[in-house]
User: What shape does this take?
Amino acid sequence: MTISNPHTQTITKDNTALRHDWSSPEVLRLFNLPFNDLLFRAHSIHRQQFDPNQVQISTLLSIKTGACPEDCKYCPQSVHYDTGLEREKLLPVEDVVAAANAARETGATRFCMGAAWRQPSDRNLEKVIKLISAVRETGMETCVTLGMLSDSQALRLKEAGLDYYNHNLDTSPEFYSEVVKSRTYDDRLDTLKNVRDAGLNVCCGGIVGMGESRTDRAGLLVELANLPIHPQSVPINQLIRVAGTPMESLEDLDELEFVRTIAITRIMMPHSVVRLSAGRTEMSDSRQTLCFFAGANSIFYGEKLLTADNPEAHSDKVLFEKLGINRKNAAAESAA
Ligand code: SAM
Ligand code: DTB
Ligand code: SF4
Assistant: This one.
């Protein structure tokens, strides 16, 4: 049960104030904290809200690949850039169910399907609904990311039993037009409203390392936290610099700046599941470990994201084992 104080904060059952009135200067002050102070604060909040040794696992599948009419400068699937990607039409239900079963067997609890569309046609939406129904039968949670949605399309997905809809804000409103020209920030916010109003869980986050400033990273987090309800899932992606996209030669983002971004996401949205999302093949085990300490508590598991590489499932298993993450009796051990 939650009690809402219009637009500013929500008090939840456990008395946590979920704020929706963050300002950019305030968030920049968090970015400027000494690293240890920031991590201590984020980890303390993380422990109050979650089991710090549990990380949720999702697996992604691209169900319709490439030839997207949008011009997102980071994306290998945009028709505007030659990335050598092989296009694929909407996958048949048998292939999708086989991938979902394989993901469940490796320990994933949610199956996320992505399509390279600006917005699905109603006909394609019905085809995706058949895929969602088939994946639900495997017992996994379902998530889809299909581009923009009208209010009736969002309601149709809710009615079909979808659990999560992913739609990222990607960056600050100020930096957005440097990254995408074929749609506006308000288009993104409208879809998020349709998804939220339909009663679907929202998965919404962004990408860092696109040449944005720290102020833009703060601006993205302000937008996310000031939504009327915090997204239930917040993916923080590090840009994967794909050859052929306009972002292929950008410089590395400092790795501690990335960890700071995760920590501040945790502080600002204490009840949201924070996903350490794209870009993990470039991250050392130590950096990922710091991210889990700072409050990240979900990952994508499996060798592919949508089209780009992700760490081998085996190396994630080894890292989780070293860290005691998802060990069955971890809660009892840490209480002893
Ligand atoms: N077309 C739909 C849309 O844009 O909402 C869904 C698919 S799109 C590939 C899903 C998300 O993947 C994007 O919003 C973006 O945040 C992320 N993404 C795409 N390319 C990426 C890259 N090179 N590095 C990191 N994240 C990326
Ligand atoms: C999200 O925030 N990141 C995922 C998921 N949501 C759909 C996608 C990352 C895509 C990385 C590039 C690719 O695999 O094509
Ligand atoms: Fe299309 Fe989504 Fe890629 Fe943008 S991010 S080009 S909308 S698939």
Q: What stands out?
A: The pocket of S-adenosylmethionine (ligand 1) is lined by residues 68, 74-75, 77, 114, 116-117, 145, 147, 167-168, 170, 207, 237, 239-240, 242, 278, 306 (CB under 6 Å). The longest helix spans residues 35-49. The longest strand covers residues 56-64. The mean pLDDT is 92.
